[in-house]
Design a protein that fits this description.
With 92 residues, the protein is of the alpha+beta class. The chain contains two helices and five strands; from the N terminus they run βαββαββ. The protein has a five-stranded mixed beta sheet with strand order 4-1-3-2-5, covered by helices on one side.
Length: 92
């Protein structure tokens, strides 16, 4: 199975609701690497790398987020797999 990379911009009530921490837990469970960070406009940006099936599952999770989140939009940008991450991190 091929490996892929995706960058997501998640909008809605996604800051202050443990979105990044929950995304990290989801990524680890799915065997993905990458990162998530809060953006100054109130959105969260996340990059996931790994097997296509697992990345698709992460995207589906991001459309819902943790219980306190209200996701209104997820912009999906497919990129070339780079293999540059060892783990999934939360960026400041």
């Amino acid at each position: 199975m091929s490996k892929v990379r995706v960058e997501l911009i998640i909008r809605g009530r996604v800051q202050g609701v443990f979105y990044r921490q929950s995304a990290k837990k989801t990524a680890v469970r799915l065997g993905l690497t990458g990162w998530a960070k809060n953006c100054s406009d109130g959105s969260v940006t996340a990059v996931f790398e790994g097997k296509r099936e697992a990345v698709d599952a992460a995207i589906a999770w991001c459309r819902q987020g943790p219980p306190a989140a209200v996701v209104t939009d997820v912009a999906v940008n497919w990129l070339d797999f780079a293999g540059e991450f060892e783990t999934f991190r939360i960026r400041s």
